[in-house]
Amino acid sequence: MIWAKEETLPRVEIESIQLKRLKETVHYIYDRVEPYRRKMEEAGIKPDDIQSLDDLKEMPFTYKADFRDNYPMGLFAVDKKELVRFHASSGTTGKPTVVGYTRKDLDVWLNNVARIACMGGATPNDVAQIAFGYGTFTGALGLHGGLEKLGASVIPMSSGNTKKQIMFMQDIGTTLLVATPSYALHLGEEIRARGLDPSKDLRVHIGLFGGEGMTEPMRDEMHKVWGEQFFCTQNYGMSELCGPGVAGECEELCGMHINEDWFIPEVINPETGEVLPPGERGELVVTCLGKEAIPLIRYRTGDLTRLFYEPCKCGRTTARMENLSGRADDMLVIRGVNVFPTQIEEVLLQIQEIGPHYEILVERKNRLDVMTITVELVDDRLLDSYAQLSELEQKIKKGLKAQLGLATHIKLVAPYSLQRFEGKAKRVTDLRKDGL
Ligand SMILES: [Zn+2]
């Protein structure tokens, strides 16, 4: 099912909507947002200079730091009385990023989320259990509102309380789960640990995942735990852009369709800022169109991806972004080599004897970076055989060496001994101190 006709327009029509909205947005931001007007003046650009989509590349970037520098509401284009909602990012250090919505913003946002839920297979008949934490985080209320708009019925469970999650799934007959992939996996394991088979004893058959990326081996792992009938997709967004609702995977699972009538995506070289041609990997930069409360031009997301413009078999013509290959700031530099945690995950998940949970510890010993990866065994009987354990350790090291070009230390531990997360999993601990 396709939610909106804008998802299937010929390229030229999508671009004509984008250009009209871009011109309006540039005027709007110049007139109403002082920090933006200053940036444009410094770059020597007037709103009327933007006459084609190609002219967008002349506009200055917006950074996460702009939100910090103008905290809490310096990037807002409307007065507080015009707002109907605030959200804020979960800033782990310092002040959070505060965002706001007018009535129209909320409407556009939730319609975009409804499109994405629809792409992921949701229908008005679904009973959707939201296992994201509520509060100022955009994920829970975003999916909540979008799924209601679609006509599904929503259970606002929030995260945690696994026992109650399972009880509601059984008693109300939940068909759709909204969660982070790591929590969905944990929940599935807990269901199995209670002697239930999700494919027979529950009705959950759709997963709408967000909050963190999902690699393909992780998706396979999801099927092992939840059953082959379980169809799970990931979607993309961030609070600065609106929340979820920017892009989502369709049934073809070939990247995430971008709601291009409301967002213009670009991929740039993160070092030089130069726009890269379709198909090349770089940092995703997003311009929000038609937003009233916080219009954003060329926002540097920090996420690495590629863009594809070929129409999809599902019937949608909107551009697709490749599932994330990491965040520019998640990248670890180990002895001069760039390493993404997702690369490590891909290797680990291909090895049968170990489970999908892992932790990465980076330390500096004798001036050298040392990376230790702790992984859970699937079967703890292996811990009794030194020879088998050592053989498995070598196999993992070899796989990682081939993928990363780096030697690693491996620690194998008993099943269920690593910490489980209800939200975004914290997998990396970096203990390196400058200069030691
Ligand atoms: Zn598609």
TrEMBL record:
Protein keywords: Ligase, Nucleotide-binding
Reactions listed under catalytic activity: 2-phenylacetate + ATP + CoA = phenylacetyl-CoA + AMP + diphosphate
Record EC number: 6.2.1.30
Residue span, AMP-dependent ligase C-terminal domain: 336-432
Pfam families from the UniProt entry: AMP-binding (PF00501), AMP-binding_C_2 (PF14535)
First-tier enzyme category under EC: ligase
Stored Gene3D superfamilies: 3.30.300.30, N-terminal domain of ligase-like
Pathway assigned to this chain's UniProt record: Aromatic compound metabolism; phenylacetate degradation
Any one Gene Ontology BP term: phenylacetate catabolic process
Gene Ontology molecular functions: nucleotide binding; phenylacetate-CoA ligase activity
Domain AMP-dependent synthetase/ligase intervals: 77-286
InterPro entries per the UniProt record, alphabetical: Adenylate-forming_Reductase (IPR051414), AMP-bd_C_sf (IPR045851), AMP-dep_Lig_C (IPR028154), AMP-dep_synth/lig_dom (IPR000873), ANL_N_sf (IPR042099), PA_CoA_ligase (IPR011880)
Function summary: Catalyzes the activation of phenylacetic acid (PA) to phenylacetyl-CoA (PA-CoA).
Subunit structure of this chain's protein: Monomer.
Protein family per UniProt: Belongs to the phenylacetyl-CoA ligase family.
Protein name as annotated: Phenylacetate-coenzyme A ligase
